[in-house]
Amino acid sequence: MPHDHHDHDHLSPSGHPYRKDNDGQLTYWQTMEIAIRELMVEKGELTPAQIQAQIDAMDARSPANGAAVVARAWTDPEFKQRLLENGSDAAREMGFDIGPMHLVAVENTSDTHNLIVCTLCSCYPRNLLGLPPDWYKTREYRSRAVREPRAVLREFGVELPADMTLRVHDSTADMRYIVLPARPEGTENLTAEDLAKLVTRDSMIGTGLPKAP
Amino acid sequence: MGGDAAGPVPMDGHDFAIWEKRVDALVILGQQRGHFTVDGLRRALEDMGEQAFESMTYYERWVTSLNQNLIEAGVYSLEELGTKMEEVKARGDTYGAVQS
Amino acid sequence: MTLSPGTKVRIKTMAPLGHIRTPHYLRGKTGVVERVLGPFKNPEQLAYMVPAPTRTLYRVRFEMGHIWPDAEAPQDTLDAEIYEHWIDQDAP
Q: Could you give the ipTM of this predicted complex?
């Protein structure tokens, strides 16, 4: 299982190890962060409240936002059409604050699977999904997703049929990509709310598939 | 980086530390203030070289790039940064203890 | 002149030092314009805070078997965003 953290004794509610950032030895980089922040406040560039508001806004974004968009697209063909034509406007239509982000939704079908990577740094639809997972930013993922994507997918537990076309999207420039996964079979009677629970973060990056009902 | 040989994708994750979230926020707000662009941030990251990628964490690299861009934009001087960092260090030994 | 979707294009092989978004692994490779994304300020100038005129940005689709001769599934594709000045207009 890719997301087990069996080596760690103390896990946070999200299943990740706690970071002892407040009581460990102060690092050079933490000192720099504090100094930059205080200088910007002293110079009237920013207020502490603005900085906290930005952190709160980022914390409020999560894959649940993207899942709601996907579930709507699964249940509303006209919305799906608008999403594929202009992802940014479709996300805004649902009330998500995505700022100036240019969002492109790419659709998984019975014969096509999509995978998102940023080989340049860490471009990610963060305004819709929140901050990217650590693995998305690693040298390993960024190097190999464009070179041997099917092998990478196997590490995530996804085995693509040989006759399925895989489309990799290297989002190095101005667009941000989100995968519209294929709606799982046997979900005909589910509401959009229940469908959204099947949509995982990884299924919107392309390294996973939606959960079965 | 794209296309280079590399090992298995590490699946471990971590919850973001508050100092990391603050770096992230300063990066966004610094752009909104018009001091630099995402391209300037990337340029500074790339100029740090491959060694930095191996020896520093993601937000350690980003705070370095943020600083580089703010210095270039004239928001503060290196003298001011150095003085402030010494002042911060003198307050205590842990991140929690040195907040003003 | 804006290139239409479907146009075959070759990516320039030049390699000036500096901040460039065109991935190294695509330089010299041939692909097809998938869609026109429109005008965007040139990041190669934005990175240095100098005036940055807009350039047309394209999404170009490459075949994996062309980029990597030993690709596991040569029919798989890779899409990347390429600025107009990285497209070699003289290439066949």
A: 0.96
